[in-house]
Amino acid sequence: MTIIPVIVGLIQSLSGLVYDVVSGIRKTDEQFMADLEIILNEALASGVELRKTLADNDAAADARLNAPHA
Amino acid sequence: MNTTMPIHVPHKWHANGDLKLLILLSLLLGALAVMLAGCASSYKGAYATLDAMARLEIAANRALIQFDTGKQEEIVDRALKAGDISLGREELSAYRTKRGKVTTSLEILSTTIQAARELIPTAEHGLSSKSDINTLIATLVKAAANLQAELADLGVLGLKP
Is residue A30 less than 8 Å (CB to CB) from chain B? Predict the structure, then answer.
């Protein structure tokens, strides 16, 4: 019966594939959480940057408009 | 993690492509996370939504920084060229009022993202309820939709001149 080794081989391949996928997902989950922390901190920092830039832009626009030569 | 790290703002960042895609992705993921709320995988959906919303916040902040700089300069240039300072002041005031709506939406988005950041892990460990997470995700989706409308109204998304 030549079909038995083929089935066993297929099962082994499938198991390996499942293992790889599962371990890959685990690793990806950890990496995902680490990356998420970075993104969340970057979001906070970009908010700080936005508020500062808008205040600077407001001040610059008002100064140009109110300058004596204007 | 240092929360005051400098943000690189590229000179020619095109808001229309990346930002629209991020808004769409955020809304889709948010809706998906709410739909998956009853399943075991709901927290993955919630984390994925959080990730997309944080990316949206960063992209919107960068787009607004770039847009605002050009817009205020344009208004002042036009007023100075026309010699009409009072018109320049009026236009600046009207623009800043509209911009205020965007920054308010961004504040709501940011606050909700940070609240969800704290709450999702506690729900994951059974210390808070799933409905709280769902409420936060729904708030995120609403904030992203509002932000989209207000960015378009201001002209950042290019839907209005």
Answer: no
Contact B123, B129 (CB under 8 A): yes
Residues in chain B with pLDDT < 50? 1-14, 38, 40, 159-161
d(CA A47, CA B107): 8
**CA nearest B103: which of A51, A48, A9?**
A51
pTM above 0.95, yes or no: no
* Whole-angstrom distance, CA of residue B148 vs CA of residue B91: 23
- HSE-CB for A69 with a 13 A CA cutoff: 2
- Provide the ipTM: 0.77
Cβ distance of B7 and A62 shorter than 8 Å: no
- Asked if A53's CB is within 8 angstroms of B54's CB, the reply is no
Residue of B51, B58, B97 to mutate when probing chain A, most A C-beta within 10 A: B58
The runs of H, that is alpha helices, within B7-84 are 15-35, 42-82
